[in-house]
Structure formats: structure tokens, C-alpha cells
User: Fold this.
Amino acid sequence: MTRYGDESRTMRLDPDSFAGGYFRNAVYRHWDPYEDIPEELLEQDRVRLVDRDQTELEFDGLRRTLALFGAGEEAVTEDLAPLSMRLDDVDKQLFVSSQLYEEAKHTAFFDRYWREVIDPVAEECGFEVTAPTDDRYFNDDYVELFDRTESAMANLLSDDSPEALARAYCHYHLAVESVLAQTGYYGIQGSFSPSGPDIETVGEPVHLEGLVEGITRIRSDEGRHVGFGMHEVQRLVAEEGVDPTLVDDTLSELLPLVAGTVDDPNSGVDSTALVAYASEKLQRRIEIITDREAEIPPVEELVRVEGGREGTAD
Assistant:
């Protein structure tokens, strides 16, 4: 069998497959990080941050959050490539190709926000202007988490076992995208959106509509990424004999690194609440993917930020 003549199928694509449906959803929900986040919203964010009563340390908490997101998006854009080489199903390859493109878009958004909002605010407030790549923003747990993810993805180039594939999905789609990123959304929505969860924050509340708009669009993409990973791990357990204990153990080993990443006393957010949220999110994912009868939740539910303030939308 070659990719050119495959007697197992008559058409090249299966639009009704799980991956095929997600790919079509990605095409439908396309957005442009340069054009679809209006300059007016970013200007409004700049004004509100300049006018906010905040210390440089409090502002640095926001910078750290954005630096972690931006570096994470860049890292997974690079690290995901081995997965597309490991898969032999064309519909899954198409979906992973769309995912690579979307991770690159997310990287572009955080780069744009730093250039057009963060640096100008620092200059106007008389704060030190820092780079989003500054080592001060990345603690040992964050570095270890992404080093392990890179290793698990690269391992796919030499190990084609179902277990290696399951570990890769657990590292990237579940620990990084589902738990760490979702916890970050929870913190950003609670800190900078009136419709976010009611969590304890430090400093004067400020609504950053440009940041929240970008995060909302990114969450829409990430829902597909998380759902695809969950579906694939569930399939590997149900159909290819992967021991559910491998999934549980892998994710449980990564949880302390996720917790250590979000447990920052200078973040401006109650770290205790974030760690508890991450732990609960991880447990929910494990329960679904190790149950062959469980249905993968809809994309919107996978990235819904629970705990929106009463009377407002999540």
C-alpha cells in the first residue's frame, strides 16, 4: 500500500470520521490573529493598564502569565511535528496539520499583544521593559514539563507502539493543552473579565477586552485539540490494548509540574485556587478517557471556564 494507491478506501477523506469532523470545524472557525482582534480593543487595554493602580511587581505577574502562554504555544508548534509523521490516517493528518497552523496563530497573538500592549504600558508607567523570553518568567517546573513533552513527542520517531502514542497525547494534548492551558484561561478570565470565575486577585480589577477576546478565540481552537487527544487516548485504551494505568500514571506524574507552574505568589491570582482547579480538571479527563463507553464532550464544553459570575456569560 502507498499513499497514492490505497485499496482499503475509495475516497481519500472520510468527512464523517471524528478527525474529519474536527478538521471541518477548524476550517469553519478560522480566525486571523492580526485582523480579527481589533486595534481599538488593544488600545483600550493599553489605556486601562496605564490607568490601573498597580505596582511593577503586579504588572510583572501579568507579563509572566503571557510569557508562559506565548512560550508554550511556540514550543508545541515545534514539538507537534513528529505526531503528524507517526499517524497513517489521512483524516488525522489533516487535523494535526490544522492544529499546527492554529498553534502558530496563537504564538502570533501573544507576540502581538506583548509588542502592542505590554511594552508600551511598561514604558509609559516607567517600568522596566522586559522580553517575553526572559528567563525570570520560567520556573523549573515549567521547563521540566515542556522538556518532557518534547521528549515524548520526539520518541514517536523511533517508537511506533500504541503506548508511545498514548504517552505523547497525555503529555501534549492533555497535560499541556487540557490542564495547564485551561487553568491559565481560568486565571485570566477571573482576573481580567467581568464574566470570569470569581477568584481572589491582587490589585485593582481591570477588564482587558482585547486580551480576553484573543483568549476566547484561542480557547475555541484548543477545544478541538483537547477533544482529539482525548478521543485518541480513549481509542488506544479500548482498541489497542493500552493499559489505563499508563494513562493515569503519566498524567499523575505531570500534575505536580503543572501545579508548580501555576503556583506563583506574584501572579496576582490565588494560586491555591488554580492548583485545585488543575487537579480537578485532570481527574475529569482521566475518568473520561479510561472509560470506553464515555462520550467525548462537545468542543465548547471542553474549554468552558467554569464558575462565571452570576448574571454574566462564561
